[in-house]
Protein: Sidoreflexin
Amino acid sequence: MAVDTSNFDIDAPRWDQSTFVGRLKHFFNITDPRTAVVSEKELDNAKQLVQLCRAGSAPPGTSIEQLHYAKKLYDSAFHPDTGDKMNLIGRMSFQVPGGMAITGFMLQFYRTVPAVVLWQWVNQSFNALVNYTNRNAASPITPKQIGVAYVTATSTALATAVGLNLYTKKAPPLIARWVPFVAVAAANCVNIPMMRQQEVLNGIAVTDENNNKLGYSKKAAAKGISQVVLSRIAMAAPGMILLPILMERLETFPFMKKIRFLHAPLQILLVGGFLIFMVPVACSLFPQKCSMAVCSLEPELRDSIVNKYGDKVQYVYFNKGL
Structure:
């Protein structure tokens, strides 16, 4: 079916982003792990097609399905603020393959301190890159701030994991299996705010519903970052809480004792099963284009908006990141 580019808005959401179900369909689409193996050339072609469609000059004969697929690739690989191609490891489409391997090893090798240190360090390195990649790019961060954020988050995860690992030596085995999740949750509470500290310190850019810039808000930044922290913890929770219970039961069977060398691959596959669903679910908990009432903003920004627009602007909008 040929597309009338004069009537087709490629940036219009295919699903209603004001509802959880609509956001879930959207994020199932752009976090599809298959897009992580698409070639660079195909990604660049998708970006070019999206830009041509925005300009109202899509090639003759282009179908709606082709445009939807191009937008899917574009949203999965290019930053929503800058339009720049994101690094592969930091993309949400890489969360399933990357997260399942790291989380599987964290859950399998939780008994010894060296293993705990190694896999928590690997996980926090991965998380730091993801958090940096998916930040609100309107608030730049310096290399020094990135380094401080990385060291702080990694230290938090290691201190939590090692401390709990030693503390739970005499606890029931299941309690020890939950230590990696506690460490991951604690580190997320540090890693994300630290990696996005410029937003907290200087505020995040807020706009009206027509994307007209209104100023910068620290309160909006705090709201957006807190929602991302909750989303990331929710993303990890089912796999890291339920899977240890499952493995604890499975390992009591004689056949499982005979195939101990397969326990790690099995956990990796099971974590992948959880993440395929939990990555889009967690991303869908809150709208990516977050809103905030003008009356809830800082007095200076609120007064500036009211003085300029009166009561015409009731809410401000901003990209909370992922």
In short: The chain has two domains: 20-78, 89-319.
